[in-house]
Amino acid sequence: MYWRIRHSEVANLPDVNSYVFQHPEGMEPGPPLPDDFVPGKVVNFERSTVVGDIYNEAAQTLTFQSGFPLEQGEYTAGHIAKFTGTVNVFYSRVVSDFDNPASWNDPNTWSFDGHNGIPDTGGDIPQPGDLVQIGFSDPGDPESFHVVLVNNTIQVGGIIFHSQPDVKLPGLKLAGNLIAAPGNLSGEGTVMIFMQEGITTSLSADIGDFNEGERSEFVYQAAAGHTYQVPGNYVVYPNLILKGPGSVTASFLLPDADLLIKEDFRMENNARALLSTGAGGDLTILGDLVAGSAAPASIGELEFRATGQSRIVTVEKNILLSGNAGSEIFAEDATSTFEHHLIAKGDIIQSAGNFRLFTSDN
Question: CA-to-CA distance for 53 and 80, rounded, in angstroms?
């Protein structure tokens, strides 16, 4: 567990009297507590401890004493040896895309000397505590972005997407039986989880900073025409995109939790979103709801179910149906007494496809 401090638009940084962080019971090591267990922090990629900072086991608090201006960093507690030295920063360096991504496990993917650096990590790849930056090679080339593939369990201190305005985003692709624990995700980029039947691909990261990116995308990509469960560990997304395999329809079961999508919710490439039948599962979309895509033309669908619970989908901007005639926003064709709500606060633009908000018995 760690605490992260960030600030913005502060012209004159104030001095900090103290930081006091409290953790839930059971998060501390032991008993007994190791003698060298101390509060520590990472600021400007530097690990450090300060004499006088206190960890109170009984109160479950970490106290960082006064004497420094407001700073941006991560704060936690651990063995004192963990808080010495500089954090390694690995920069992506290989132009790649989601069809042909660079491998996380290949030392040639990384450099300590920036996105145009040579592979100078001595054969090392990012490890726990390291920082990763995924970016692009040439500011003048919109096709020079980097995508890195993770196909085994990883753990690092954080991943920062380094993007260019108005061009394709750098990305992280997760595929295979794995748990990716990249600490904190930040910057504007694309995270893709490649979903395969019988395989669990899990992301365990703080995506709060990532969600603040207006162009940031979280993509669930289906490998084949099966039904996939969208994990319930995230209830807030930036842009949320469901992608089918193209040739056949893949269905995505949305989690039994209310979701907030801060930008657009898109279904494309033969993707069907199935609203939850559980206690939770309403959607609030602050951008557009888009079923289908025009270039290239593909099908997207959103289905209100006939079992479980009535659902509410609120769209703050526009609802768009596009792609081809197969794109639909519809109610499952089965006997039901539910009263679902689709609330459009902007325009409804139907360039292809259908609204079918009824069933054969009503």
Answer: 12
DSSP assignment of 48-98 equals: E--TT-EEETTTTEEEE-S-EE---EEEEEEEGGGG-SBPPEEEE-----S
Report the distance separating Cα 219 and Cα 319, nearest Å.
19
Low-confidence ranges of the chain (pLDDT < 70): 1, 29-31, 66-67, 359-362
Please give the sequence-ordered ranges of beta strands (E in DSSP) within 94-213, or none if there are none: 102-103, 110-111, 131-134, 147-150, 154-155, 158-161, 171-175, 178-186, 190-195, 201-206
94/117 Cα distance (integer angstroms): 10
Structure tokens at 54: 């206190």
Q: How far apart are CA 155 and CA 135, in angstroms?
A: 19
DSSP for 280-297, please give it: ---EEESS-EEESEETTE
Measured between alpha carbons, how far is 188 from 242 in angstroms, rounded to an integer? 18
Tens-place pLDDT, residues 171-217:
999 999 999 998 889 999 999 999 999 999 999 999 999 999 999 99
Q: Enter the pTM of the model.
A: 0.87
Give the Cβ contact number of residue 8 at 10 Å.
5
123: tokens are 């054969």
Please say whether the beta carbons of 230 and 193 come within 8 A: no
Alpha-helical segments (H) within 124-180: none
